[in-house]
Design goal:
The structure is a single chain. With 77 residues, the chain is an all-alpha fold. The protein has one domain. Helices cover 75% and strands 0% of the residues. The radius of gyration is 33 Å and the shape is elongated.
Length: 77
């Protein structure tokens, strides 16, 4: 006997398996490309990170507070 729901599910499963295989193949290709990209050594990367950290700390450092003027200096001026 013909069951439309089962027929539809079989077709859906087929296409989902096909899409999954294509995605896995795509990720394998991306992985092989990533292996070929030159990577920096960890020491150089750490030096750059420390330099960036110091520059960000200097940029986020609050400015020196404004010099306070005494009230009596304004009155006597």
């Amino acid at each position: 006997m013909f069951d439309p729901f089962t027929f539809w599910m079989q077709g859906t499963v087929y296409w989902m398996k096909l899409i999954k295989q294509q995605q896995e193949a795509y990720l394998r290709v991306l992985g092989s490309f990533a292996e070929k990209i030159p990577h920096e050594d960890s020491a150089k990367l750490a030096r750059e990170a420390e330099a960036l950290k110091k520059s960000l700390q200097a940029a986020n450092k609050p400015a020196a507070p404004a010099k306070q003027v005494r009230k009596d200096a304004l009155v006597n001026a």
